[in-house]
Specification:
Blueprint (H helix, E strand, L loop, with lengths): L1 H54 L3 E4 L5 E4 L17 E15 L2 E14 L6 E13 L2 E14 L5 E14 L6 E7 L8
Parallel strand pairs: 1-8
Antiparallel strand pairs: 2-3, 3-4, 4-7, 5-6, 5-8
Length: 194
């Protein structure tokens, strides 16, 4: 009799308490989870921003129209009618790569350039000096520019030589946006113009 009374009178009370507890715990955990998610998301975005910036290494490109250099004998103008028949060498930049490291407020980059030189119709061999410029820009602003004289040599009996060069001194202020471009190309001058 007592067990029957307890079951009938206690069951509605237990059911009501269970619903109330579940409802309160759902509210509490939902609010807590939302708050934790908000904090976690803000921390996550801070970390992602730092990681993205540290992972950012500017794009490299060969400046259009400067990928090839033709070297003629002294006194031969490159736009003259027979210039190509007298061509000594033709050099081509084939690849540009870069490596980036962040140090405090500086982005330090190494820019590597590789290409080849072929001799002209005369089959001339020997040394050639290649004027290669590395430029780093942000929009219209020039952040770094340097002209390098790279040597290449076609040995007797050969018609092709390769060249490689690394500019290890490309340092700029740490960027706050991903808007930097590294351009490389042959620069024949004149060098005394603004």
């Amino acid at each position: 009799m007592l067990s029957r009374l307890n079951i009938k009178s206690v069951t509605p009370i237990i059911a009501a308490k269970t619903v109330l507890i579940l409802g309160l715990s759902a509210c509490t955990s939902s609010g807590t989870v939302d708050a934790l998610d908000s904090v976690a998301n803000s921390k996550k975005s801070e970390v992602e921003e730092t990681v993205d910036l540290r992972a950012y290494c500017p794009k490299t490109t060969i400046h259009a129209g400067t990928e090839t250099l033709r070297v003629y004998p002294k006194g031969v103008k490159k736009d003259s009618k027979d210039a190509l028949k007298k061509l000594r060498y033709q050099a081509t930049i084939q690849e540009v790569v870069r490596e980036c490291n962040y140090f405090s407020q500086t982005l330090a980059m190494r820019v590597g350039i590789a290409g080849r030189v072929i001799n002209g119709p005369t089959g001339e061999t020997g040394d050639v000096e290649l004027p290669v410029r590395v430029v780093v820009t942000r929009g219209n602003d020039v952040l770094y520019t340097q002209l390098h004289k790279i040597s290449a040599s076609i040995t007797p009996g050969r018609s092709v030589a390769t060249f490689r060069f690394v500019d290890e001194a490309v340092n700029i202020d740490k960027p706050n946006k991903q808007n930097i471009l590294i351009r490389v190309g042959f620069d024949e001058g004149p060098y005394n113009t603004p």
